[in-house]
Design brief:
Layout: H1 5-15, E1 27-28, H2 31-38, E2 47-51, H3 57-64, E3 68-73, H4 76-85, E4 91-95, E5 111-115, H5 121-131, E6 135-141, H6 142-149, H7 159-167, E7 168-176, E8 181-182, E9 189-196, H8 205-215, H9 223-226, H10 233-239, H11 253-262
Parallel strand pairs: 2-3, 2-5, 3-4, 5-6
Antiparallel strand pairs: 1-8, 6-9, 7-9
Helix pairs in contact: 2-3, 7-8, 7-11
């Protein structure tokens, strides 16, 4: 198994590599945690987009589950290593920044997975929501994971919580301590499964994310003040049985969707 401390340390030493702090490289060496993540959704015969395969710890398990893996890795050193060290006919390796890579070729029903770098987690999650995969298997900082479960009025309730809950059912699979990584980060991580809801809206997640951001532009201001230029808002809020001085952070995901449709 690649997700072991011995494998990671030996591979780094053999290749003369040092984890790149700027790229958020913390390699998970808890094989059981990665197995739990890879086994949380049926993957046989499905395409999986893996963000940041690193040394291939999760990649190996996704392939073993029968997935066709398209892995996007920004670090050319790790790309070179994987090309030599993890050869599989079901693995396609793309070198580049996942946030700048054209992923329009992914088939309907693909699954997204990855041990996401802490520094770009929010940007990657936003990108994935716009791509609308059938499911996501993510290892993220616990603070980022909490956003998937946040409720109206909570400090971490924002566009990601609102929109992800409209399209997905989140499930916390477990926590991963800093010691499960090489090098160890300073925070606890979490394993999160997001499975597409059968009753998800037909609207574009990107449009709803933009609308949610507008509703929460200034969290201490009312919806009416944030959504300037929409004089019909007060009438719509009244029709929905909501107070005219309501703040955006008080909207449930379902109310956000209704408001979006009405405006």
């Amino acid at each position: 198994m690649r997700a072991t401390k011995a494998f990671v340390e030996q591979a780094l030493a053999r290749e003369g590599l040092q984890p790149n702090k700027n790229l958020g490289q913390n390699f998970c060496v808890d094989g059981a945690a990665l197995q739990r993540l890879a086994g949380a959704l049926p993957l046989k015969g499905r395409t999986v987009l893996e963000i940041g395969p690193g040394l291939g710890g999760l990649t190996e398990l996704l392939l073993a589950a029968g997935a066709r893996v398209c892995a996007v890795e920004k670090d050319p050193r790790l790309c070179d290593f994987l090309r030599r060290d993890l050869t599989d006919e079901n693995l396609t390796l793309l070198e580049g920044d996942c946030l700048k890579t054209d992923l329009g070729f992914l088939p309907p029903g693909f699954v997204a997975a990855g041990n996401l770098p802490y520094c770009i987690t929010a940007d990657v999650v936003t990108m994935l929501l716009k791509l609308r995969p059938a499911g996501m298997l993510l290892m993220v900082q616990k603070e980022a994971a909490d956003r998937f479960f946040a409720q109206p009025g909570q400090k971490n309730y924002g566009p990601v919580a609102m929109v992800s809950q409209l399209y997905y059912t989140p499930d916390l699979l477990g926590l991963v301590p800093p010691g499960a990584y090489v090098p160890p980060p300073t925070v606890t991580s979490a394993l999160v499964k997001l499975e597409a809801r059968p009753d998800a809206p037909q609207e574009s997640p990107g449009s709803l994310l933009k609308f949610a951001a507008a509703c929460l532009r200034m969290r201490r201001k009312t919806l009416y003040n944030n959504l300037t230029g929409t004089p019909e808002l007060k009438g719509v809020l009244a029709d929905m049985g909501l107070a005219p001085d309501l703040r955006g952070e008080a909207l449930t995901p379902e109310q956000l969707l209704t408001l979006y449709r009405r405006l």
